[in-house]
Structures are given as structure tokens and as C-alpha cells.
């Protein structure tokens, strides 16, 4: 039987042939695969976000499609459309790139909300509707989107309904000096891209989820998850005239509770544990909630980030002594 650490290591090793560093981000991507969730990657251009997702698809051995989001992209360019046939006067369905196991929505915030929303049904229902007919998407199915920070020119912030459907929002940072030096040593003198081999499969991934579903989550940890999520709502519900400044316009939705629960089990399995601990929930807390809370104008004016406000929720929430 394949164990979590073994499966994780073989994928990490293969991805490492193309991507140096980003160990935490890679682990979170594997967690999302096991938890059947989508991922939003945010970072400055040139940090190998696209290469990372493409390498993950190659190592996993699934059908991969990339959609470059641009201001002139149409929803039909993503999901597909009905094509008229002059021969018989009928219409046939032309399926778009969304019909793949792993779909990379590259620079998703370069396209207006109308195109971004084309992914909503696919992400939530795992199906798309073309010409009034619903079409099931292949299993497994994941959307992994990249975006540049909204301060960049020519970008459109994602609607709240869109971001809430992502399991994680991961922040991709610059590599360390040693990692960047290693990149130059490996690829500075060659122009070819490394070729990755398939070390897993979609069928294997679906089978491994049965092991993830068997990971124990105690009532105490479930209560801790609920307290954390509701703690973000408490911050949003604070009266403006109170002694404490109101930092959030809205807190996390119930999807956040499910995200912490499911991702916690997946992370525990990857680490070789048979139960979810509060420490694991704390590790993924920011990744699962930073895109589900809305900062007030006062918070933004003070230079506060979602992560800093979520730190307050972690500090205020008692950690269960027994799990």
C-alpha cells in the first residue's frame, strides 16, 4: 500500500527536476489534489508559477491544458461552444480546454469578471453547460490559477464568489540566494527544458483519497476548526463605534470550515499521520482563509494584510489540550 510520504516524495523528486525550491507550495498543491480542491497561486511574474503547475501535471500523468487569460478572451474560449455545420444544418458541441484533468488558468486576473465566471460551474459542479446541455468533466478535475498582485497594471480583482471556490490561495515568493544560484548552475548554460516522467496517475490519486478519508478528526479538532472560522466572522461583526477597530467587512464562509477539515486530513496523510492535530490546522489556516475575508478600508489604510489579521484570530482562539 502506498503511504503518504512515499507518494509525496516521488512527486516532489520529479517536480524538482524542473522547479527548485518552493517546497511548501508544492506540498500544498499535493494537499489540494488529495482534498479535491482548486488552488490560486499569487506572485510576481517570473517566479515559475506556470512551470510549477505544468510540472505537477506531467509528474501526475494527467491530461493538462493551459488557458492564457487575456482582456479579449471570451467565455466560449474556455468552456466551448456550439458550432454550426452547413452540411446538415445542425449544431455540434465543440468542447473547450476546460475538459481536462488539470486546467491552468494562467494570469486569471488579466481577464474581466465575465470570463473568470466561466469557471464557476466547472469548479463547483465539475460540469459545464454548453447550448443548454450539461457535460460532465473528467475525473479527477482541478483548476489551478495564477495571478499577479492586483497592484499590477491591467488586472481585474477576482469576484468574492470566485475566490471562495479555491481551496487555497498560495503566495509564491522569491527563491533564496542559494536556490537562485542552483537555478543558474542547472539551466544557465542550456536552453532545453527538462523532460519530466509520469510517476503517478489520475486513477491512483482517486484511490489514495480513500486513505485520506480514513484519517481521524476528533471532535475537539472539529470544534477548533469551527472556532477559528467563526473567529474571523466575529472580527467582521464588531461594532464600528466600539473600542476595537473593525478590521474585516466579512468573515470566512462555511466553505472555509470544510477546507480546513478536508485539507487537514490530506496534510496529515502526506506527513504519515493517522489523525489531524491542531498544529496541522494552524499550518494551513492562512492558506485556506486569506482569500475568504474582506479587509475594511481602515485595515488597508494601516497597512494590515489578511495574514496579519488572521494571526489575531489564531492568537485569540484557544487550542484544545486533548485531541
Query: What's the order of the H and E elements?
Result: HHEHEHEEEHHEEEHEHHHEHHEHH
Sum up the overall morphology in one term: globular
Strand order of the largest sheet: 2-5-8-1-9
- By CATH, the architecture of the largest domain is named 3-Layer(aba) Sandwich
Q: Stretches where pLDDT falls below 50 for ≥5 residues?
A: none
Roughly what fraction of the amino acids lie in strands?
15-25%
Mean pLDDT: 88
Q: What's the CATH H-level superfamily name of the largest domain? A: P-loop containing nucleotide triphosphate hydrolases
Q: What's the CATH C level of the largest domain? A: Alpha Beta
Largest sheet: 5 strands, parallel
Which fold name is given in CATH as the topology of the largest domain?
Answer: Rossmann fold
- How many structurally independent domains? 2
Total count of strands: 11
What is the straight-line distance between the termini?
27 Å
Describe the structure.
The relative contact order is 0.15. A hairpin with a 2-residue loop joins β6 and β7. The chain has 2 domains: 4-180 and 200-207, Rossmann fold; 214-316, Magnesium chelatase subunit I, C-Terminal domain (Helicase, Ruva Protein, domain 3), CATH 1.10.8.80. By secondary structure, it is α/β, with parallel strands linked by helices. Strands 2-5-8-1-9 form a 5-stranded parallel sheet. Strands 3-4 form a two-stranded antiparallel ribbon. The radius of gyration is 21 Å and the shape is globular. The two termini are 27 Å apart. It contains 14 helices and 11 strands. α9 (202-213) crosses α11 (254-270).
Amino acid at each position: 500500500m502506498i503511504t503518504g510520504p512515499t507518494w509525496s516524495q516521488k512527486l516532489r523528486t520529479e517536480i524538482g527536476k524542473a522547479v527548485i525550491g518552493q517546497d511548501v507550495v508544492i506540498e500544498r498543491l499535493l494537499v489540494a489534489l488529495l482534498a479535491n480542491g482548486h488552488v490560486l497561486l499569487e506572485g510576481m511574474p517570473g517566479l515559475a508559477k506556470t512551470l510549477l503547475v505544468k510540472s505537477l501535471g506531467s509528474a501526475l500523468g494527467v491530461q493538462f491544458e493551459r488557458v492564457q487569460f487575456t482582456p479579449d478572451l471570451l467565455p466560449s474560449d474556455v468552456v466551448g461552444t456550439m458550432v454550426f455545420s452547413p452540411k446538415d444544418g445542425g449544431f455540434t458541441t465543440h468542447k473547450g480546454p476546460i475538459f481536462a484533468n488539470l486546467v491552468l488558468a494562467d494570469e486569471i486576473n488579466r481577464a474581466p469578471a465575465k470570463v473568470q465566471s466561466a469557471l464557476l460551474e466547472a469548479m463547483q459542479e465539475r460540469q459545464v453547460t454548453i447550448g443548454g446541455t450539461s457535460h460532465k468533466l473528467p475525473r479527477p478535475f482541478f483548476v489551478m490559477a495564477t495571478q499577479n498582485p492586483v497592484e499590477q497594471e491591467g488586472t481585474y480583482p477576482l469576484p468574492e464568489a470566485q475566490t471562495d471556490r479555491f481551496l487555497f490561495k498560495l503566495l509564491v515568493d522569491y527563491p533564496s540566494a542559494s536556490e537562485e544560484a542552483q537555478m543558474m548552475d542547472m539551466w544557465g548554460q542550456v536552453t532545453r527544458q527538462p523532460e519530466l516522467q509520469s510517476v503517478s496517475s489520475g486513477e491512483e490519486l482517486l484511490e489514495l483519497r480513500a486513505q485520506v478519508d480514513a484519517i481521524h478528526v476528533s471532535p475537539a479538532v472539529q470544534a477548533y476548526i469551527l472556532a477559528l472560522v467563526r473567529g474571523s466572522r466575529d472580527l467582521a461583526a464588531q461594532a464600528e463605534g466600539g473600542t476595537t477597530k473593525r478590521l474585516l467587512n466579512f468573515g470566512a464562509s462555511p466553505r472555509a470550515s470544510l477546507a480546513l477539515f478536508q485539507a487537514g486530513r490530506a496534510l496529515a496523510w502526506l506527513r504519515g499521520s493517522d489523525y489531524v492535530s491542531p498544529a496541522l490546522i494552524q499550518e494551513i489556516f492562512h492558506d485556506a482563509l486569506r482569500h475568504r475575508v474582506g479587509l475594511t478600508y481602515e485595515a488597508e489604510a494601516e497597512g494590515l494584510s489578511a495574514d496579519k489579521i488572521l494571526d489575531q484570530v489564531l492568537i485569540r482562539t484557544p487550542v484544545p489540550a486533548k485531541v
